[in-house]
From TrEMBL:
Pfam families: ASC. GO terms for molecular function: ligand-gated sodium channel activity. It is a multi-pass membrane protein. It is found in: Membrane. GO terms for cellular component: plasma membrane. The keyword Ion transport applies. InterPro entries: ENaC (IPR001873), ENaC_CS (IPR020903). It comes from the Eukaryota. Keywords: Ion channel, Ion transport, Membrane, Sodium, Sodium channel, Sodium transport, Transmembrane, Transmembrane helix, Transport. This is Pickpocket protein 28. Belongs to the amiloride-sensitive sodium channel (TC 1.A.6) family. The chain crosses the membrane at residues 78-99, 531-555. It comes from Drosophila virilis.
Length: 573
């Protein structure tokens, strides 16, 4: 009974909740509840922390693994974080220094690996100018000194120059000599002498002393010959000079220039040489411009120069007489007044030539000219010249500046056919223009340096950087006395002085000193490969960082991060 009652009570207690639950569920549709979407912020943050910890544990970068260890004390983490930041700072500083060096000095000039034989370059062009611009005529009162003194007196007195007993030809010669004699004595306010516009080249040509009297004989490559076989006339700021082994004006100047149109017609083969490419490999021994096969006096040019005491006009060129000699590259226009070797009379002068050549590697052609500080021949076009060189560019810039300042150019400057030529009233102006151009270039570069711009890469107004391939002829000079009268007396020759009264001679020999020479070469100091290797070395030294380290970093926080995030979102759903 008790058992039954108990069981009954238990059955009753079990049935009540069931009935209550059934009654409570009446009227409720469980399928109508809306599904809640989980927030993405928490899984995203969790996924980022997991990716960070996994990356720190598996990274190949030194010190990073200590930053992701949870059991690591906070002080150690701060220490390694500080070391990591300092390493990054050191890397950034050194890489910036390497980049600055690569950007500012990408080109280095060093010695070439091999020596160069002299037959790979042309023999230097030799320009010779006599100090005698006009033969002084005996018993003539119309010397340059006499006419200039009268001119100075008349200018101070009446400002009108009317010399007596002077022909039109002599007046033209006097006006021309004002441009080639001591021009530094010309005053600022010198007036224009009345007369027609002169062709200065024609007047200078007419005044020239006879070539065969002043260039007595020549020897080239051990062959004696008349000097006119080797020399051609050249118009320079010193007047008409004579050049050996220079390129023809038609090969240097453009077709619309005065120098091109008034040059002598010559039957010379086409040149197979250029400064950048050298001689054609198939060219023969005799080339244009000429070259030699070895060093020494026998493989050079030898000449005897002569002048005459009674023909010297000391008032024109001063007390130092004789000849001026300039050695230059065949494609350069000679500028004798800038640098020359003086050949005095009664001396034997030996000039041993030591060429200095700078070549260019193919790699630096990709750099901007301002970065490598030189021009390739195709990069800089000149108005008057076919061939670019620093000397030709400076001469053209001077001509343009003189035209702007004075309204004309000096008779010897490169010019087009329609450009006016300066008269005697502009002598002071074009002499001053040459100095003002140099001062202007100096102030321009200095002002750019003052404001903080680097001197390297500054473009001047003339923009006449050196050619990337250049050739300069350095010289060693030795002299000895050459006593003509004593030699003639010893030989018993009495006829020579009767045929050439007042003769005074000098001998000149020009040759290469050595058969081989060391060239310099412009090449890349830091290429892209060198810069990347430098950066890799710095990163490896301070952090153990490499390209694969970068790939690891991108992998953990892009691809792996995305996969882990997608997995977490599925689990939460």
């Amino acid at each position: 009974m008790f058992v039954r009652a108990k069981s009954y009570e238990m059955d009753g207690s079990m049935s009540v909740p069931d009935a209550d639950m059934e009654s409570n569920n009446d009227g409720i549709d469980l399928t109508s509840k809306k599904k809640r979407h989980p927030s993405i912020g928490k899984p995203l943050c969790k996924c980022f922390v997991n990716a960070y910890q996994e990356y720190c544990q598996q990274s190949s970068i030194h010190g990073v693994q200590y930053l992701g260890e949870e059991q690591r004390p906070i002080k150690e983490r701060i220490f390694w974080l500080s070391v990591f930041v300092v390493s990054i700072y050191c890397c950034a500083t050194l890489i910036n220094s390497a980049y600055t060096k690569w950007n500012e000095t990408p080109v280095i000039v060093s010695f070439a690996e091999r020596s160069t034989p002299v037959w790979n370059i042309p023999f230097p062009a030799v320009t010779i100018c006599s100090e005698t611009k006009r033969v002084v005529k005996a018993n003539s009162n119309n010397s340059f000194a006499h006419l200039y003194n009268q001119f100075s007196h008349d200018m101070r007195a009446t400002r009108i120059f009317k010399p007596q007993n002077i022909t039109a030809i002599e007046m033209d010669e006097f006006r021309t000599l004002l441009h080639v004699c001591n021009t530094h004595i010309i005053d600022r306010d010198m007036p224009l002498i009345p007369g027609e516009e002169l062709d200065y080249f024609a007047v200078l040509e007419r005044m020239l002393p006879p070539f065969e009297r002043y260039f007595f004989y020549c020897r080239w490559l051990s062959r004696f010959n008349e000097c006119d076989k080797y020399f051609r006339r050249t118009l320079t700021e010193e007047g008409i000079c004579y050049t050996f082994n220079g390129m023809r004006p038609t090969d240097i100047y453009r077709e619309d220039t005065y120098q091109y149109n008034y040059s002598e017609v010559e039957n010379v083969t086409q040149s197979t040489w250029s400064l950048e490419t050298g001689y054609d490999p198939a060219s023969d021994v005799e080339t244009y411009p000429a070259r030699v096969l070895s060093a020494g006096a026998r493989s050079g040019i030898f000449m005897t120069l002569q002048s005459f005491k009674q023909e010297v006009d000391y008032a024109c060129r001063g007390p130092v007489q004789g000849f001026k000699v300039l050695l230059h590259a065949p494609d350069d226009v000679p500028q004798v007044s800038k640098q020359f070797v003086r050949i005095p009379m009664g001396r034997e002068v030996l000039i041993a030539v030591k060429p200095s050549m700078i070549t260019t590697s193919a790699g630096i052609a990709e750099y901007h000219p301002q970065r490598r500080q030189c021009f390739l021949s195709r990069e800089r076009s000149l108005r008057f010249f076919k061939v670019y060189s620093e000397s030709n560019c400076q001469l053209e810039c001077l001509a343009n500046f003189t035209l702007t300042k004075c309204g004309c150019v000096k008779f010897s400057m490169p010019r087009s056919l329609d450009m006016p030529v300066c008269g005697e009233d502009k002598i002071y102006c074009y002499n001053l223009a040459e100095r003002e151009l140099l001062v202007r270039e100096f102030h321009r570069v200095r002002s750019l340096n003052v404001v903080g711009e680097a001197p390297r890469g500054v473009e001047t107004a003339c923009n006449c950087m050196p050619a990337c391939t250049s050739l300069v002829y350095n010289t060693e000079i030795s002299q000895a006395n050459f006593d003509l009268e004593e030699m003639l007396a010893a030989e018993g020759d009495t006829e020579f002085m009767r045929d050439y009264p007042g003769s005074q001679m000098s001998r000149l020999s020009i040759y290469f000193k050595q058969s081989q020479f060391i060239t310099s070469k412009r090449s890349e100091m830091y290429g892209v490969t060198d810069f990347l290797a430098n950066c890799g070395g710095i990163f490896g030294l301070f952090m153990g960082f490499s390209i694969l380290s970068m790939v690891e970093l991108l992998y953990h926080f892009t691809l792996r991060f995305g996969v882990n995030l997608k997995h977490l979102l599925k689990v939460d759903l």
